[in-house]
Specification:
Bound molecules: BIS(adenosine)-5'-pentaphosphate
Structural class: alpha/beta
Oligomer: single chain
Order of helices and strands: EHEHHHEHEHEEHEH
Helix content: 40-55%
């Protein structure tokens, strides 16, 4: 819910803006969502981050999902739908939200539609950030994350200033258990099996747009903003 950096000069909070970022593991959804928070003044709702937070807190939910996540499999629809339901009822999401990593199955997409409809709200856009499988593997295997502030780095593509330490708070960077090579393959397989079909669901509603996630983070961000601003003008 916080912003990491950047100018607030374009901050817009005057309308309910509900965006979905889809894409394979490591497409850059989280990286871009954090920048979109600054731009549009709406929070990121990452089911992956929520589940990791539950694990870090040692809660019953965290214990329930740990093995599934570490194996690169999808946790149950009921669990993630309940997490999103709770967030959408919070005042923090009244001006909108950026869904990151949700929905990932048709059942999750249908549940989100029902929930939003019951609130008199609807999605603006579902944007697929597409990245080829080979690049997905490279990005995930090289990713390192700060356990303290959640900031993400990449060993080659976005290294910290000092090897192994977070630029923000100096904490020792960690590798996510599901970023090991074999787990990345399992996550990619789950993506191709379930999540990519969710785009068909939203295609039928005329909500989808696709951009390439290959290029610099600035390039990808510029493409996203152009797309979202066009959507806003049409809404
Ligand atoms: P989740 O955390 O959602 O993982 P994911 O979808 O696999 O996505 P990632 O967070 O790995 O990648 P990202 O696209 O955000 O990329 P990032 O910006 O970090 O889910 C984890 C697990 O939780 C799942 O496997 C499942 O078990 C469970 N789960 C979560 N949601 C669920 C749901 N709805 N239903 C069921 N189960 C669920 O970038 C990756 C790397 O690339 C970074 O190192 C970054 O620095 C680098 N990078 C970013 N952009 C660029 C660029 N343009 N060029 C070069 N490098 C870049």
């Amino acid at each position: 819910m916080t912003s990491d950096s950047g100018s607030l000069e374009h901050l817009e909070t005057d309308r309910d803006r509900l965006l979905v970022l889809m894409g394979p593991p490591g497409a850059g959804k989280g990286t871009q969502a954090k920048r979109l928070i600054d731009r549009y003044g709406i929070p990121q709702l990452s089911t992956g981050d929520m589940l990791r937070a539950a694990r870090a807190a040692g809660s019953e939910l965290g214990r329930q999902v740990a093995a599934i996540m570490d194996a690169g499999q999808l946790v149950s629809d009921e669990i993630v739908i309940a997490l999103i339901d709770q967030q959408l009822r919070s005042p923090a999401t009244r001006a909108g939200a950026i869904f990151d990593g949700f929905p990932r199955t048709d059942a999750q997409a249908e549940a989100l539609d029902k929930l939003l409809m019951s609130m008199g709200r609807k999605l603006d856009r579902v944007i697929l950030v597409d990245v080829p499988d080979a690049e997905v593997v490279r990005r995930n295997v090289g990713r390192r994350t700060c356990p303290k502030c959640g900031r993400t780095y990449h060993l080659e593509l976005a290294p910290p200033k000092q090897a192994g330490a977070c630029d923000v708070d100096g904490a020792t960077l960690e590798q996510r258990p599901d970023d090991m090579l074999d787990k990345v393959s399992a996550r990619l397989e789950a993506y191709h099996r379930s999540t990519s079909q969710v785009m068909d669901y939203y295609d039928r509603q005329g909500l989808t747009a696709r951009i390439s996630g290959v290029g610099t983070q600035d390039d990808v961000f510029a493409k996203l903003v152009a797309l979202i601003d066009r959507t806003g003008a049409a809404a």
